[in-house]
Amino acid sequence: MKLLLPNGTASSADPIFDILSRYKTIAVVGLSSNPTRPSYGVTEYMQSAGYQIIPVNPNETDVLGEPSYASLDEVPQKIEIVNIFRRPEETPPVVDAAIRAGAKVIWMQLGITNPPAAEKAQAAGITVVMDACILVEHKKRRQKHGNVSSP
């Protein structure tokens, strides 16, 4: 896992815990309605943990009971975390859209890194997590701290 905090941000003992405790709205780019896909299982878990899920996939209309949007630019509500399930080379336009949307965190799932896109997001004041599974990190902190989803 690699974590990039915006310049001037004070680091805490566990910035991942801070992210998961503070932000509750997750736009999931690349979310599939196929229950065998990792994006589905991870997002289903996060939804069951109390997070508001916004599916973003031009090939879907509804995932996990939520309407799906073709792109981040089409999402009408506030986005806090952008969770990316796309190939590394496909992340730059997602990062650009996340910046436009005013996202607070960009989370690139396990195996996904794009340092130039991450640095662009960091320069725009966004916290970036790369190469980490949000489900795994949430479970670790839930075991350590109890209910991570509480405000």
In short:
With 151 residues, the chain is of the alpha/beta class. The chain has five helices and eight strands, in the order βαβαββββαβαβα. The chain has a six-stranded mixed sheet, sandwiched between helices. A two-stranded antiparallel ribbon has the order 4-5.
Report on the structure:
The protein has 151 residues and is α/β, with parallel strands linked by helices. The chain has a single domain (2-145), classed as Rossmann fold (3-Layer(aba) Sandwich), CATH 3.40.50. The protein is 34% helix and 19% strand. The chain is built from five helices and eight strands, in the order βαβαββββαβαβα. It has a six-stranded mixed β-sheet, with helices on both faces. A two-stranded antiparallel sheet has the order 4-5. Helix 4 (115-123) links the parallel strand 7 (105-108) and strand 8 (127-130). Helix 3 (91-101) packs parallel to helix 4 (115-123). The longest helix is centred in the C-terminal third of the chain and has 12 residues, at 134-145. The model has no long low-confidence stretch (mean pLDDT 93).
How far apart lie the N and C ends? 25 Å
Q: Output the strand order for the largest sheet.
A: 1-8-7-6-2-3
The CATH class is: Alpha Beta
CATH architecture assignment? 3-Layer(aba) Sandwich
Range of strand content: 15-25%
Gross morphology: globular
Counting helices, strands and paired strands, the structural category is: alpha/beta
Which homologous superfamily in CATH is the superfamily? NAD(P)-binding Rossmann-like Domain
Query: How many distinct helices?
Result: 5
